[in-house]
From TrEMBL:
<feature type="binding site">
    <location>
        <begin position="221"/>
        <end position="222"/>
    </location>
    <ligand>
        <name>substrate</name>
    </ligand>
</feature>
<comment type="similarity">
    <text>Belongs to the diaminopimelate epimerase family.</text>
</comment>
<dbReference type="Pfam" id="PF01678">
    <property type="entry name" value="DAP_epimerase"/>
</dbReference>
<comment type="subunit">
    <text>Homodimer.</text>
</comment>
<comment type="function">
    <text>Catalyzes the stereoinversion of LL-2,6-diaminopimelate (L,L-DAP) to meso-diaminopimelate (meso-DAP), a precursor of L-lysine.</text>
</comment>
<protein>
    <recommendedName>
        <fullName>Diaminopimelate epimerase</fullName>
        <ecNumber>5.1.1.7</ecNumber>
    </recommendedName>
</protein>
<dbReference type="GO" id="GO:0005829">
    <property type="term" value="C:cytosol"/>
</dbReference>
<keyword id="KW-0457">Lysine biosynthesis</keyword>
<comment type="pathway">
    <text>Amino-acid biosynthesis; L-lysine biosynthesis via DAP pathway; DL-2,6-diaminopimelate from LL-2,6-diaminopimelate: step 1/1.</text>
</comment>
<feature type="active site" description="Proton donor">
    <location>
        <position position="82"/>
    </location>
</feature>
<feature type="binding site">
    <location>
        <begin position="83"/>
        <end position="84"/>
    </location>
    <ligand>
        <name>substrate</name>
    </ligand>
</feature>
<keyword id="KW-0413">Isomerase</keyword>
<feature type="binding site">
    <location>
        <position position="73"/>
    </location>
    <ligand>
        <name>substrate</name>
    </ligand>
</feature>
<feature type="binding site">
    <location>
        <position position="12"/>
    </location>
    <ligand>
        <name>substrate</name>
    </ligand>
</feature>
<feature type="site" description="Could be important to modulate the pK values of the two catalytic cysteine residues">
    <location>
        <position position="161"/>
    </location>
</feature>
<feature type="active site" description="Proton acceptor">
    <location>
        <position position="220"/>
    </location>
</feature>
<feature type="binding site">
    <location>
        <begin position="210"/>
        <end position="211"/>
    </location>
    <ligand>
        <name>substrate</name>
    </ligand>
</feature>
């Protein structure tokens, strides 16, 4: 049996596993637990399954404490970064160490987090528009161009996003529109597809179709940062301004500065449980996104 906990950040939910736990097949474990029809369930949780499994190796001797974070997604692939997942990881570490600061090592780099009760702010790094850094298969940045019928801007905020500003996010059939963009040839590693529409208060509503989840999630932290980064690139907001980005799961606050960005929002603990290990390997997954 494996001890697990479940957290969510504005509805983006994750099973958290201490990396010291014996999980011989992380891919199979994540695929089974994340399944929305047959995955992990508990009376304290709003819904079955999860958007990913966070394997966290805590190194408390550092000041501030450090975590090595590995996110295995519902399809068995490993994500380079996840804003809400990193915020959940910071909260998990803070509860074990009593610290109000945490350093998180991810495949996309080391990120600093501040924990203030249930509110967690994570450093997200500088958004990247350079074609090689997104990546996109071209020589110039992809800005406000049509890809598979959707006008998008490509940016990497830890993972690649194709961001489209629309009049009203709820008027778009995301499940139909997003997959062709997500798999478009111009994105050699695939891309998350994020829609945004302005709010009267000066923020943005957001919906994201996530690569690796292969569907819409209630919240996406890298997507919220991508919305703000593209809004700044297009002159919709000023550098250094903090804007509210609202996915279906709740409000996130994003600040994009020259050379860095920050994501802030609540983290909620749902439950702790024991689950069996999983030995059977799932079907192979193309982690490149092709």
């Amino acid at each position: 049996m494996v001890d697990v906990e479940k957290y969510h950040g504005t509805g983006n939910d994750f099973v958290v596993v201490d990396a010291d736990e014996d999980v011989p097949n992380r891919r199979a474990f994540a695929v089974e637990l994340c399944d929305r029809e047959h995955g992990i369930d508990h009376p304290a949780s709003e819904r079955r399954g999860a958007d990913g499994v966070l394997f966290l190796a805590l190194e408390p001797a550092y000041n501030p404490p450090r975590i090595v974070m590995t996110l295995v997604q519902p399809d068995g692939s490993v994500a380079g970064m996840c804003g809400n997942g990193a915020r959940c990881a910071a909260k998990w570490a803070a509860e074990r160490t009593g610290a109000d600061e945490v350093m998180i090592d991810t495949p996309s780099g080391t990120r600093h987090a501040d924990v203030d009760g249930d509110d967690v702010t994570i450093e997200m790094g500088a958004p990247v528009f350079d074609p090689e850094g997104v990546p996109v298969d071209r020589d110039e940045p992809l800005v406000e161009e049509t890809v598979e019928g959707l006008t998008v801007t490509a940016v990497n905020t830890g993972v690649p996003h194709a961001v489209a500003f629309v009049e009203e996010v709820d008027a778009v059939d995301l499940e139909s529109v997003a997959p062709p963009v997500r798999h478009a040839d111009v994105f050699p590693d695939g891309a998350n597809v994020t829609l945004a529409s302005p709010t009267p208060e000066g923020g943005f509503r957001q919906r994201t179709f996530e690569r690796g989840v292969e569907g819409e999630t209630r919240s996406c932290g890298t997507g919220a940062v991508a919305v703000a980064a593209v809004a700044h690139r297009l002159g919709r907001i000023e550098a250094g301004a903090t804007v509210t980005v609202s996915p279906p799961g709740g409000d996130l606050r994003v600040t994009v500065e020259e050379g860095n960005s920050y994501l802030e929002g609540p983290v909620v603990f749902e439950f702790a449980a024991e689950v069996p290990t999983v030995e059977t390997d799932p079907e192979p997954v193309d982690a490149s996104g092709d």
